[in-house]
Amino acid sequence: MFEKPYSWACLLHLASELHLWDDERADEWKSILQPLESRIRELVTSEFLPQDRPFRVATHHNSAFALHCILDYAEQ
Asked: N or C: which end of the chain has fewer CB within 10 A?
């Protein structure tokens, strides 16, 4: 489970940037990534957010970094 939040957060971070980018290329990327983006949102809600405690190691596994990226996405 430790790699999932980081990867999920990176994808959601990319999606949030694409939503801000006013360009036809961004629209194409958004449409391609939309099914994956929706699935990742579901997984974050069902598997990441309900965790009993955070991972506090000083690597990509750190849940604080993932939560930061997810929050950026949620604020869009």
From this structure: N
Q: Give per-residue pLDDT as tens, 38-55.
A: 999 999 889 887 878 777
The position carrying tokens 């999932």 is 4
Rounded to 10 deg, the angle between the 4-20 and 63-74 helix axes is 30
Nearest CA to 57 among 11, 5, 13, 2? Answer: 2
Q: Is 61 exposed, middle or buried (0-12, 13-18, 19+ CB in 10 A)?
A: middle
pLDDT of the residue at 36 = 95
Indicate the residue type of 41.
R
* CA nearest neighbour of 69 among 17, 26, 33, 23: 17
